[in-house]
Amino acid sequence: MPLDHDQTTPGPRPWWLGGAVVAVGALWLYGAVQLPIVATHARIGPGMFVAIVGGALVLLGLALTAQIARGTRFEPQDAEDAVAGQAPSRKALLTALLGAALPLYTMERFGFVVSAALVFALTARAFGARKPVLGLAIGAALGAATWFGFSALGVQLGTAWRLPSLAALLPHL
Description:
With about 170 residues, this protein is mainly alpha-helical. The chain has two domains: about 1-75; about 85-170, no CATH class. The chain contains seven helices and no strands. It has helices at about 15-35, 45-70, 90-100, 105-110, 110-125, 130-150, 165-170. About 15% of the residues are buried.
C-alpha cells in the first residue's frame, strides 16, 4: 500500500514517545505487583485497577509505536485549537507538572480535598482557564465527592481536609 504523503512523513520519528508510554505502563504494572490484586473482604483489590491502567498504557504505547513505525505524522487537528508548527507553551507545561507533583507536598499536610482543589485549579490554568477561584471550587467539589465516594466503599484516601494553623506553615524561628 503506497504511503499517503498527507498522512505520513519520512522525517525523524518520535520513537521515544511510544517507549515512554510503554515504560510508564510497565512502571504501573510493577506498582500493581506491590498491591493486593484481590482483597479479602471485597472481590477486587486496589492492585487490580493499577494493573488495568498499566496494561492499557503498555498496549497503547505499543499501538503508538506501531503508528510511528508506519510513519504517521502527529499534527494538531482543527478541533484541538492549536497552531501547527508553533512551539508548545513551557509555562503551561510547567504549570501542569506542578499540579501533578503538588499532592506529594500537600496531601498529608492539607488533606485530600485541598490537594484535589489545587491540582484541578493548576491543571485547568495550564489548559487556559482564566478563573482560578472557580477552578478551586470545582476541584474542591470533585475532591470531596471522590473522598466521600471512596469512603462509602470502605477505601480510605487519607484525611479529607486538614487546615493547619499559620504557625505550622511558617518555619520555626
